[in-house]
Amino acid sequence: MVRLILVLAFVAVLAIAFAAVLGTLAATRLPAGEDHDTMPETFRKIAYFALVLLLLGLSLGWLGAA
Asked: Cβ distance 64 to 58 under 8 Å?
């Protein structure tokens, strides 16, 4: 049973790596010098602030503590 879980985990890692490589290849085909970012500036700032709070909470043990 453990071998099955390990094989499935390995297949999942391979799929994620394959998707990352495809994403990188697709990003390199975009024309240089053009900005294709469609995220609004305010949403980007809020998301960045939420990320910092999440990382701070995880590192201090406020989130995910047992």
From this structure: yes
Contact yes or no for 40/34 (Cβ under 8 A): no
Q: Write the pLDDT tens digit of every residue in 47-61.
A: 899 888 888 877 777
Which residue has tokens 């394959």? 18
pTM across the whole model? 0.41
Residue 25 is encoded by which pair of tokens?
């290849």
On whether the CB atoms of residues 60 and 66 are closer than 8 A, the answer is no
Contact yes or no for 51/43 (Cβ under 8 A): no
Residue 23's H or E segment, with its range, is helix 2-28
